[in-house]
Amino acid sequence: MADAVCTFCGNVCDDVEFDVNTQKGKRLCALGLAKFREKERIKSPMINGKEVSYEEAVEETAEILVNAKKPLLYGWSSTVNEAIRYGIILTEKVGGVYDQCSSVCHAPGTLAIIEEGIPGGSLGTAKNRADVIVFWGCNPLEAHPRHPARYSAMAKGFLIKSRKDRKIVVVDVRKTKSAAMADKFIQIKPGYDYAIISALRALVKGEDIEAREVGGVPKEVLAELADMMKSANYGVIFYGLGITQSRGRDRNVENAVKLIQLLNRHTRWVIWPMRGHYNVVGAGEIPAWEVGFQYAIDFSRGYPRFSPAEFSAVEMLLRKDCDAMLVMSSDPAAHFPWKAVEHMKNIPVIQIDPFPNMTTLLSNVVIPSAVAGIEAEGNVYRMDGIVLRVKKLVDSEYWSDEKIVHEILKAVERRL
Amino acid sequence: MIEVEVITGRTIDQGKTVEEKFSEEYFNAVNYCEINEQDFKKLGLRDGDRVRVKTDFGEVVVYAKIGDVPEGVIFIPMGPYANRITSDDTDGTGMPRFKGIIGEIEKTDEPVKSVKQLLGVE
Amino acid sequence: MIEMLWIKNGIVVDPKNGIDAERMDIFVKNGKIVNEEDVRKEDCRVIDANNKLVVAGGVDMHAHIAGSKINVGRTMRPEEMRVVRQTAGKLRASMGRVLLTSPAIGYEYARMGYTTAVEAATPPIGAPHTHEELDSIPVVDKASLTVFGNWHPVFKYAADRDREKMKAFIAWALERTKGFGVKVVNPGGVEAWMYGGNVRNLDDEVPKWSVTPREIITELVNANEELNLPHSVHLHCNNLGVPGNYQTTIETIKLVSGIRNDSRQVLHVTHVQFNAYAGSSWRDVASGAAEIAKVVNSMDNVTIDMGQAIFGHATAMTSDAPFQFTLHKLTGSRWVNKDTEIEGGAGIVPITYMPKNPVHALQWAIGLELGLLVESDRVVLSTDYPNGGPYTEYPYVMAMLMSRRMREKELDRVSPYVQKATSLPAIEVEKTLYEVIEMTRSLPARVMGLESKGHLGTGADADIAIYNLNPNDLDPASQYDVVNREFRVPAYTIKDGEIIVKDGNLLKETWGRTYWVDARKKASVDSIDSDLNEFFTEYYTVRRENYGVAEYWMRKPERLEVN
Description:
heterotrimer; A: 416 residues; nine-stranded mixed β-sheet; 18 helices; 22 strands
C-alpha cells in the first residue's frame, strides 16, 4: 500500500492508500477506487488513427495550433497546475482561446463573485465550527462521497464533537441519496432557487412574505429554515450544479451570496461551491494570476480578454468560431450539448488524455498521458482552494501532461 | 406522450465509469431516464421499456426506470444521451442549461443507440 | 553570469555605506558587486552613468503580490484587467490597473528600479499557492511572510507561556511554509471573527482561549528574538481602520520597550497609516500620526512602514477578516471572506480613494505625516499594495516627501478636512534624496535582515537602479515633477548583474530567488511532534505529511539558515 492523494473529485482526499499490484485501496470511495483501478488506455500517440511517436504528435499539434486562426484550448480541470500554467502560456503564444470545464459547471459562481464577491471558508472551517450545514442543489453522496465524513456532515473538530452538535439541511428538486443524511430535506420545484432564496432573505430580515408557498415550499418551512440560519453559530451553505445549471444560473448564486452577506449581520455564515473535478479550481486560479481571468479568455489580439458570451467553449463551438481545438483531459464530445459537439467534427481536434473517450473518436491527434496522482505528480487545488501535491506511485512510459504541454509550447515557439 | 421537465446530473455509477466510456458499465450508467411512478404508469411502461425524450434542442431514445422524482420531472445522468436534449442556449453566460429543460416523453420501440452510433462515427 | 559590468562615473547614493552623492564607479562580476581590482576592465561591459543617480535596487518589504488574496481579487475584479501594459511577444502580456497579473508584477517592479519584493501575508495552509504565484513573478527576488497571530497552537503556547514550544512551532511552520518571517495580523481578532466578533484592545480575551492580544504579541516577539530570525515580528495591529486606534498602536509599540537586538528592530509595525486614527467615530476622526511618530522616534527598536493611500483605485485585502467585513458594510461594496481552517482568515473589498472624500484625504495625509515625521532610519515607504494603492506610485510618494511645494499643490485639490484634522499642512520637513533612498533601499533591506540587498557595498547582490537624475544638480523641493517622472523610468535596472531594463524598456525576463528562513537548528522541533500529530488528526483536513511546501517544487529557493 502506498500513500496517495486522490485525483477524482474536488475533495482531493489526501488520506487514501492504493496498492498498484493488488489493485486494492484503503479509505477510497467508489469513485476513488474506480479512479485508481487499471483500465483501458490509449496505447500510443496517434495522428489520424495511425500510431506515431510522441515527438511526431507534438510537432503535428504545434503545426495545427500555429496554423489555426483561432484555436480553442479547452479542458484543464483534470491535470496538474504545472501543465495548466504551460497551457496558458501556450494559448497566449498561439493567440487562441483558453477555456476550462468550469464554463459548463461552476463558472456562474465566478460571475457571482464578480457581482458580489464570496464570503467563504476552507473545508476545515466547516469541519471545526459549523453547527448548521445546508447542501443546496448538490448531492455529495454521489458526486463527492467522502465530503460528509471528512469535511462536513459527520466531521468532528474544534467546536463540533459529534454529529448531534450539527444540523444538516438538504435542498433539492429530487430526493437524492444525500437527502437521507439530512435533519431537514426541503424539496423545491425545478428552477425556483432564486425565488426561494429571495424569500429567505426577506424572512431573515424580519419581513413578511405574502405568498403562502414559494417554489413548492410552504412559507412555514421557509420561516423555520430562516430561523435556523439566524440562530446558527457558524453556518455553511455548500451549493452545487442544481443552482448553477438551472434557470437563473449566476443570479441564483449571487442571490445566495446576498443571503450570506445578510446573515453575517446576525451571526457567522459562509458559502462555498462543491467543485467537481479534482483540479477544476486550479484551471481557474492559474490563468487568474497569469493573465487576469479564470476562463473564457481570448488572446487573438495579443492580450487577454474575458467574455463568457463569446469565448466560452460552448459558445465558440456553437458559433463555429474556432478552427482547431485542443482538449486537455476532458470529454466535451460526451458532455457538451450536441450542437456544440457537431462543430468538433469539422475542425482538427487534438486530445491529451490517459483514457479513450468520445472525444478520442473525433480527434485527429491523440496524445496519451500519464495519470496524474498515479503515474505523475504535481500540485492541484482542492475545491476550497487548498493546494495539495498529488503523488507518483508508479513509473510509466507515458509522458506527463506537464511534459506534453511543455514540449508543445517549445515546438510552437520554434515556429513563431 | 406527457410533458416533462428534464433534469440531468451526476450519479455514482456515471462517476465510477466516466474514464471507461466504451465499457458496457458506462453505457448502462448513462442511457436511461428516471420517471416518477405515476408518470411511468400513465405512459404504460414496464421494466426494460424505452422512451423517446424530445426537447426543442433534440431527441434521444433511452431506457425508462422508476425513480424518486416528482411527477412531471425526469432525470437523465449527465453524458452523451442527456446532451442530445439539453439546452445549448447559454444566455450569454457560457453555461448551457443542463437542468430544467421543457420537453415531452413517449414510449417507443426504437432501440437505444450505442455511444458510437450517437456520435455518428459508426 | 560571466558578464562583468563597469558602471562608470555615476553619482552614487548608498546610505548603508554612508555615501551621499559621490561620483564613483561600480563594478559587477558574477551577479555581485566587487572591488575594482576584481575585474578585468577591458572585459567589462561599460555602462555610462555620467551624471546619473546610481542606487541599489528598491526593496518592497510589504506588498500583497502572491497567493489566494490577490488572486481572488483578480477574479472578483475583471475590470482591473482592462489595462494592457504590454501585449504578448517575446515577453508575456502584462495586464492590470492596480491589481496586476504575476508577469506584470515583476515587470513593473523592474521598470521602476525595484528588485526585491516581499509578499506580506501568507495563510499557512495557503503557502503552496503563494509559492506557485511567487514562482510566476519574473525578475525580482521574493520572500513571503507566514501569518501566525490567530493560529491555534500559537494561542496555546502563548497561553501556556511555553517559549520553547513556541520557538519550535515557529521554526517548524517557517520551514513547512517556506516562509521568511513571523507575520501577525490582528492577533486574536480574527479568531473572534469566527464568532462574529473582534477584539477591541490588547487585553480582550480570545474566545475559548485564555489568552489576549498582548500575550500573543509579547510571546511571539520574545520567541522571534530568541530564535534570532533575520526579520522581527511584522505586526498588523489590532483595531485597524477604527477611529481612535492610534492609542492601541502606541500601546502595542510600547510592548517591546526593553527588548533589544543589535542588528535590527524587534518589532516592525506595518501600514501604520491604517492604524493612526484619532477621534471617536468617522465624524470626528483625525490624525494620530504625530503621536505615533513621537513614540517611534523615542524608541530605537521599532520600525514602521507607511501604508500610504494613493488617490484612485485600490483593493483592500488583508488577513484581518473582521475589518474587511466592516469595510464591506461601510461601503456596500463586494466582499470576499475566507476563513482558513483554524489558522485565521482573510477578506477582500474593492475601494477607491477620492481626494474630495474627507476620510480618504485624511488617510492620504496621515501616510505622508508618518513618512515625514518619523526619522528616516525607521520608516519604510510603502502603499501596502494594493490596499493603499499601486506600488507603481512610489515615485509620487518619494517626490511628495521631498517637496513641501508639491504637497501644498496637492493639498489644494483634496478635501479641506485635512486642514484641521492633520498636521500635514504645517509640516516643513523635506526629506533629502539620501533619506528617500534610505527609506526605499537600505532601510527595508535592514528591516528584513537581507544583508546583500539595499546597498552597493562589496559583496552585495548586483541589483542596481540608475536614474536620469544628477543629485548634485537637482533641487527636489522645486523640481518635484522631475523626481516624480524620473523614478518611474530608470535608465537601467540591473538584477544580479544582468541588464533587465534600459530607458524604461524591459529587455528580458529572468527569474529571481525566493528566500526562506530555516531556524530549525535553533529550536527543538521534536518537542512539538506529538502536539502536531494531535493537532493534525483532530482539526486539520489535510494530513501532516501533506502539509506545506517542498523545496524541489520551487523555481529558485534560497534557504537562509539561522545559526
